[in-house]
Amino acid sequence: MMARWFPVVPARRLAALRLYVGTFAVVYLLGQFPFWVSFAHFHRKDFRPYGLVKLLRDTPLPDAVQAAILVATIGLALGFLVGACYRVVAPLFAVALLWTITYRNSWGMLFHTENLLVLHVLVLSIVPAAEAWSWDARRGRPAPDSERYGWPLRLCAAITVLTYLVAGVAKLRLGGLDWTSGEALRDQVAIDNLRKHLMGSPMSPIATPLLSHAGIFEGLALMSLAVELGAPLALLHRRLALVWSVAAWGFHVGVVALMAIVFPYPLVFIAYAPLYRCERPIDWLLARWRRRRQRVEVVDREPPATSA
Amino acid sequence: MSGTTGAVNATRWFGLIVTIVTLAAVAWPLRRDPVLDDSFPLSTYPMFAARGPGAKLYLEYLVATGPDGARRHVPPRLITKAEVMQAIMTVKQAIGRGDAKGLCTRTAAKLARDRGFDRLDTLAVIAGNHAAVDYLVRHVHGPERTLVSCPIPRGSR
Asked: Shortest Cα distance from B83 to chain A (angstroms)?
């Protein structure tokens, strides 16, 4: 059991997860910047703080302060991504990201799209995820394989599957076994799409035709529940992890198709990366790049052909 | 050798403590009310779980109308600059604090500058109560009540 939780893995594997999560965070924060830079369009009375932001009680921050925090968060995200002064920058980034997203969620609507990102960053911020492929590690010798890099990956994987399990249990607690009839899911899809229509937003193009076929939603409900309650199986074996993560990804594709709700972190597969030998795509890219560079150097060194 | 073992033990202790604390925290919402106690980042993930009888949806929304009977629902970008759900909360909370008229006037000013609403002259804040499947599949609309209406000012672009 202990050996399974503390596998000896290369430093590159944990570093790869940092690169994926860091890249996602930078791109995501930049994409959300126009929406999160100011909350002046919300009424102060709409401020309902959650989690860490409860420290503010019921008084939101001045817009300039929150904008400065957002800019700092993006700067820290870049530091996290490249692994510069990681021991200091990574924990600061984790707290800043937690604050920024919690603050955004404190304006009338609690979203569930960034929970895994924040939880993974919190873990990565206190482990040696910058001992390879980082600014800090650019001059040192390659770190030997170690269990120091193994358990954080197992923990991130466990967090991923646990969040799905919690979501599955919530369905059973609120809907009971009746939830598997598909009626509740069909109602949710209908309500979500009607809500979008009434708010002048685009609906899913396939939802309305499917709503006429209740049987389809029974199958979808069973599959959703199987993905969520079966999530812990992904921790048992790499092949089970592959099957589960593809099924979970398919679940999110279905959510996009039926409700136009995007969970970007799982959709780009980073949520499932800790279940894999996630350094391999980067190894492959680097090997390709080196081969290409070697070819270019050989061509440069060859003497020019002389004409007869 | 003992130094290495010591280091490994320290790694394991640290790893075990962080693992136990983190997983307990992520699982902690299982003991909480799935709807009332949702939070961030430790969530009960209640989305898609709750069920209301007959997929009924009561919602307050904004609709612009024209003299020829044209009707267009106002999108979130003209109410706030945020997502659908935050726009819904903005409308709901404005009505809740007695500011429906102000919301109507502020939004009408934005519509006046939007080409998509050129042919429309009146904005209304509406409370509708619809059966979602009936509305979308059978086009049967539920009752709607106009809470407040205001003109869309012209000539301000």
From this structure: 9
